[in-house]
Amino acid sequence: SSVSRITTDFSSLVEAWLHRELDYYYPIIYIDAIHIKVRRETVATEAFYVLLGLKEDHTREVLGIVNIPQESATGWQEVLENIRSRGVQKVGLFVFDGLTGLDEVVGKVYANSMKQNCVLHFQRNLNKHIRKTHREAFCKELKDVFNPDDVFYTTKEGVDNLKSVLGKWSKTYPKLKSTTNRDDLDTVFTYLNFDYRIRRMIYTTNWIERLNKSFRRTLKMRNALPNPKAAITLMGYVAMEMEEKTYSYPISNFKFDDNFNLNNV
Predict the structure, then answer these.
(1) pTM confidence score
(2) How far is 22 from 86, CA to CA, in rounded Å?
(3) Is the pLDDT of residue 258 over 60?
(4) Which of 46-50, 141-145, 161-165, 217-221 has the lowest mean pLDDT?
(5) Which ranges constitute the DSSP H helices of the chain?
(6) Which of 72, 73, 166 shows the shortest CA–CA distance to 126?
(7) End-to-end Cα, the chain, rounded Å
(8) Which pairing describes strands 90-96 and 25-40: parallel, antiparallel, or unpaired?
(9) Rounded CA gap, 168 and 141, in Å?
């Protein structure tokens, strides 16, 4: 009954909110997909694409919630082109997980934007190739490689140190060689181009994953939503509430240095 009431009462409001005009510029946009069980004759898990933006006043805004049944790079291209048509012409930095082809799609739609591949997703993907008995030692070495608090640490040093660690472990786990040979490893260390005091806020997708966690708490009231529209309405209801409360407060850490201007990065 709660799902039906919210869907009925807020459907048109959420629909208008999802198609509203957006700002011209966002310093940072986090993108991620949440997977939810919905019914279309039968019940199946489908992807809902979510975008969370940091505005110029350092408050946050949910830019979009889009249902495309399967997550893919081409799906993200459609979603990014949609926010572009709604006014977003410039983005300083995109933060995303390691979905194949996503960095190319981001570059295609927003050619001048910087890209940060989530460090935690990157580490998890590497850990899949490592035995549990070796994982603690491996993770310790990776932690030293991804050091966000060293003021003088550079992207080149990060890439070189990562290749060194992977080269060492690839003698035992040959599959790691494919990562060593990647030509996009610098996107894992983009955060090092920013002041060390904000790096922990931009080198993972934690912010948007917390938002998705809030979505899941609300969606748990049913094992499966009656249709995709109901899921989007509920998620939109949560997002709008977040914008009125938590997201309406500026992130003070981004204001610490007058010489650091995200708009010029």
Answers:
(1) 0.91
(2) 6
(3) no
(4) 217-221
(5) 2-18, 73-85, 102-109, 119-127, 132-145, 155-169, 177-180, 199-202, 206-219, 228-244
(6) 166
(7) 49
(8) parallel
(9) 11
Q: Residue 155 burial by CB count (10 A; 0-12/13-18/19+): exposed, middle or buried?
A: middle
Give the C-alpha distances (Å, rounded to integers) separating 118 from 12, 26, 257: 35, 19, 25
C-alpha–C-alpha distance, residues 54 and 265, integer Å: 15
Q: Do the beta carbons of residue 158 and residue 195 sit within 8 Å? A: no
Select from 10, 41, 65 the least CA-distant residue to 239.
Answer: 65
Q: What is the mean pLDDT of residues 235-247?
A: 94
Q: What does the block give as tokens for 213?
A: 């966690």
Give helix 206-219 / helix 228-244 axis angle, nearest 10°. 120
DSSP at 152: T
Residue 71 in 3-state DSSP?
A: coil
Strand partners, 39: 43
pLDDT for 1-21, tens place per residue?
Answer: 555 566 666 788 899 999 999
Determine phi and psi for 34, rounding to 5 degrees: -110, 140
Q: Residue 140 has which token pair? A: 């310790």
By the 8 A CB rule, do 211 and 167 touch?
Answer: no
Token code pair at residue 28? 């940072």
Q: Give the three-class secondary structure for 103.
A: helix
Is 259's pLDDT higher than 70? no
Least confident of 62-71, 74-83, 194-203: 194-203
Tokens encoding 191:
């955060």
